[in-house]
Amino acid sequence: MKSNNNTKQIILESASKLIAKQGVKSTSLADIAKYSNISKGTLYYYYSSKYDIIADIADTHLEIITKAVLDCVKNVTGDEDTFSLVQVIVDRISTISSTGRIHMYLICEAITENEALRLQFAEKYREWRFTLREELIKAFGGIKDEREIEALSFLLISVVDGLVMQSLLKAENIPYSDIAKCLVDTIVTKKTRD
Amino acid sequence: MKSNNNTKQIILESASKLIAKQGVKSTSLADIAKYSNISKGTLYYYYSSKYDIIADIADTHLEIITKAVLDCVKNVTGDEDTFSLVQVIVDRISTISSTGRIHMYLICEAITENEALRLQFAEKYREWRFTLREELIKAFGGIKDEREIEALSFLLISVVDGLVMQSLLKAENIPYSDIAKCLVDTIVTKKTRD
Amino acid sequence: MKSNNNTKQIILESASKLIAKQGVKSTSLADIAKYSNISKGTLYYYYSSKYDIIADIADTHLEIITKAVLDCVKNVTGDEDTFSLVQVIVDRISTISSTGRIHMYLICEAITENEALRLQFAEKYREWRFTLREELIKAFGGIKDEREIEALSFLLISVVDGLVMQSLLKAENIPYSDIAKCLVDTIVTKKTRD
Amino acid sequence: MKSNNNTKQIILESASKLIAKQGVKSTSLADIAKYSNISKGTLYYYYSSKYDIIADIADTHLEIITKAVLDCVKNVTGDEDTFSLVQVIVDRISTISSTGRIHMYLICEAITENEALRLQFAEKYREWRFTLREELIKAFGGIKDEREIEALSFLLISVVDGLVMQSLLKAENIPYSDIAKCLVDTIVTKKTRD
DNA sequence: GATGAATGAGCTTTCATTCAT
DNA sequence: CATGAATGAAAGCTCATTCAT
């Protein structure tokens, strides 16, 4: 009595977990099938190729991330807004173990051998940055230098990605809140300078 | 000291080039042998496994990066020093096509299936951050809040990694100098605020 | 007697078309099901195996061919009969695109891995040749050497199969009417020689 | 101490034998490897794909056939030449068990899913027919109608292929020498008619 | 030092077939 | 009648690794 969506969902989740753990190339369809408690044949009943599974994982992942980004950024538009940018960082980074790894692997895959995936990611990054920039413009009251805001939007996105990378490397305990405060300072200073 | 080192060097360079282009998993020993104009057997005369070749590539890569990081940071200690932090960014990012890709692939490899490699990278990241922090302390004249400088050092390293990722995704033309200026502003502000 | 036969007929026609296009081994049951707009399960309601479908196709095909052969040969018994043997060739060859390919594939299948099919074809070939021989005897007025007529019947059948093969290979434009004339000449000569 | 050519030769012969027995699609690389007493990996050391193996078989096969065709036809140019056309048939057909089957399977493969192979065969068929036509012109002393000779060349080639097919189907005992005599008659008649 | 030959495990994918509903 | 879900064996192919010479 397994329903269509159920099995497909199980495959998707298994594949996500395994890819998050081992990376795209190191996760075989046999792995996914075994982890999902189905046969390799069933995999192909729901997906037409490994590539197809990865595309689905990427879609789901990008949707989740996008929702998270929007949620974070939209919340910043309140009154004591800039300070809540802390959340942008902390919230996003706190999801590292569940999504950060898969984010990294998918990006590696996208850069090396999956042009379609690269385009998907490229578009999302643009989208995220545009949204962030719009919110920054609102926060700054629209009177700031356009190029400075542009730079700031690039910078904020980079910081997040860079911190995800560092956290995955487990090099050091990262002082997220200190870094967040540092960033807030930067923004506030720029804002009040005018 | 003739053919021996020479051949090993050729292998190392070939492998680096190929891995930078295709990633670790997608680069086969056959690829490396062909590109090096030697036989697969010879590969095993110089290296005991594929893993061994990657370790050597990582060593070389980390040495190069470390030298670059030190060079950059040491130069910042001049008088109008903070402004030359621009260089930290621009210089590092400008080497993207040659080292950025291999950096990403090695990190992916390190995160997923090569604990030894992960430890190697983790140590280097700590080392780089310590160096950077020392230079920041010098630049700030030692009177700043320690935690703020700590945070700043994390932040600067993150930005670089994040920008490398974005540049590899080719999502947008990244305004490096604007971002650099933005960062300099941040540091200068903090410095003069006291 | 409604949907039952109808569906089975659709399956048969779809399978014939696909096998004519792609050959037996390259035509999957999934292909046939999709082309018939039914599910794979339904296929098994009407046929117990792929082998079973092919047997049915062969039956139908052999029936069609036999009818065509008989039609042709029977027409030759008129007065200026031998000349209309042209038709035997031209008519048969003109149906190449629709039946020639399936004929070839079924014969290949019969030769390699389907003994039952081989026996079916063998019997039909005997039958066709007997019929042809009878007609030749009639045409020759029964006074000819039996072995020569026997040989002629083998020869005529061979020519047709050989020409089908060549036409499928698309090596050259085959001068069917010239060849037909050549054959008529042969027969007429033999006939009048006595 | 297996030499390069030796192993490749073994593979080629094994593959030929198996394909002659089972056809192209039904002969797996595992079959070939097992029959050759080597591993599947070794197969790929000598050939880059299954397609590659088949191409090699086809080359060898076509070379053998071409040599046989030339040998036969060239011998016909003697004095009592036309009668030795018997040989064209008998010699060619007598090689059925060794080459006829493979000929059929390769042609099936060529027709259905290997355009390159089809072109190879198409060219050879043209070549064979040209050679045969030249010899016929010589035999006829050059005074015959060109179109009649053309037709005759098509006809002779068709007969051979058709007889091969029938012999593989094992429908009946084929009276090769009677058929040959019948053909010789045809040619001689045409020749002396002028 | 260097090589070519050989291997076997594992990869992605295909497909005829089964069966509960 | 008809289906969608599931299967497992087998296919073509890749690749790190071994080893005699």
TrEMBL record, chains A, B, C, D:
Residues 28-47 bind DNA. InterPro entries: Homeodomain-like_sf, HTH_TetR, Tet_transcr_reg_TetR-rel_C_sf. Pfam families: TetR_N (PF00440). Keywords: DNA-binding, Transcription, Transcription regulation. Residues 5-65 form the HTH tetR-type domain. GO terms for molecular function: DNA binding. The keyword ATP-binding does not apply. It comes from the Bacteria. The keyword Transcription regulation applies. PANTHER family: HTH-TYPE TRANSCRIPTIONAL REGULATOR YJDC, TRANSCRIPTIONAL REGULATORY PROTEIN. This is TetR/AcrR family transcriptional regulator. The lineage of its organism: Bacteria, Bacillati, Bacillota, Clostridia, Peptostreptococcales.
